[in-house]
Amino acid sequence: MKRSIKNWNFMVIALGVISLAGLAYNMFFYQRLRPIILAFGDAQPVLSSMEKVAAIWFILIFISHGLALAWVMINLRLFRKESLLLSLLLFAGLLSMLMVVGDFTLLSDIGKEYKQGWDTSGEWIILYISQGLHFLFWLLLIIMAAAAVPKGLKEAGQFIVKDESIFLNAQYMGVFCGLSGIIIFALLSAYMPLWALKKGIFIVSLLLLLPYLVIVAYWLIVKLKEKGREWYDEKQFQDICRAGLVSTVLSMVFMLTMYIIQYFTSTEFISVVWFPFYLFLILLIFSASTLYFAKRT
Known about the structure:
Layout: H1 2-38, H2 44-78, H3 84-116, H4 121-155, H5 164-191, H6 194-225, H7 234-265, H8 268-296
């Protein structure tokens, strides 16, 4: 068991280093391609010399994401204590993996718009932000995997007796998803045209909720495998009841505020984003208050 945990950690570190090398190559590719595309020059020489290698790195990085996320899920289940950092890593990893697919779509759109003679500067900004998320995820993963080598050897075999750590990790994930949803939709409302916001609001909402849905589904699978299971122990049930009350009261205050703003301003942006705001606010308040009550006693 100890040897297998150690080898798994080293494999994840190797995957991280390889993925960072691939990201660095692709960033070099983008840096060579971007000024040519923006100036509507001839991009074929750069594409001919670099795009096949970049495509291979795309595939390898995507597969590496899957293996890395499996390592995170195993660690969430393996040790007794919940981990804020592992939950953050799972959140960042799932978004990063989805954004690998998004990168491919963005590059395809850039190519089509370039041929039409359209400005693609906005797409390049999003692509570079996505690369920053990838780099952040892999750096965090390498650091945590390296730290887990001695920790794993000491704690190997200390399996979770109950599902409390997964339950608490799900609440951490709810905080991350809720907070990121509120911030992102606030930024989109401020800087994105209304037509673009309407077009992308459902996809963005689903992407931001997906990490929470994944860990909740994992918790449900763990519960279904238990013999003579109880869905919540007494403490968890009390925490959830308190969190539900807090979420209801605070969300009603928030909805009243949104209604007053919409009533007096009649801005169309609020009519588009109020439900996603409400959804992520409920998730944030419920998860944060559950964690608060769980940590109090």
